[in-house]
Amino acid sequence: MVALGKVRTKDRLRIAGICNDDHCLLCVTGTDACTHLFFRCSFSRNVCLGILDWLKIRSSPDEYVYVSWRKWGRKYKSRRMQQVCYCALAATVYYVWKARNISLWQQSVPRIEVWVREIKSVVYRRIKAIVNSKWSAHELAWLSELAQNIN
Ligand SMILES: [Zn+2]
Known about the structure:
The protein has helices at about 10-15, 35-40, 40-55, 65-75, 80-105, 110-130, 135-150. The two termini are about 30 Å apart. The protein has one domain (about 45-150). By secondary structure, the chain is mainly alpha-helical. It is built from seven helices and no strands. The protein is elongated. The protein binds zinc ion.
């Protein structure tokens, strides 16, 4: 839905006459729009930077998620490692949207470092659950290094 720009952000709801303002709930200076949330918003950019750093992808977040995803998989030759990166990108998108909704309904923005740690943790747990004997020693060592850098 994010890649298609179809999430129900305030900019769309305002046009439909459902709400009056379209301020971003995470940074307050931007517009609550898909193009802002993924990843122009200072909150989402910083969360994204934390995850890119964890994966050792030396790239700044692109402004649009549908540009970003190509870079996230390009760093590694291993298909499994690429899949971990894509999993991390999907989790980042999900958690930015979750933070936006927490801000909307609970009037509190999660702390960036807490959110980054949560994304790392959930990605690691999901990947750890699918590791099997086909994973190479190199891939396992990389995964182990990710686990050590969750906190
Ligand atoms: Zn924002």
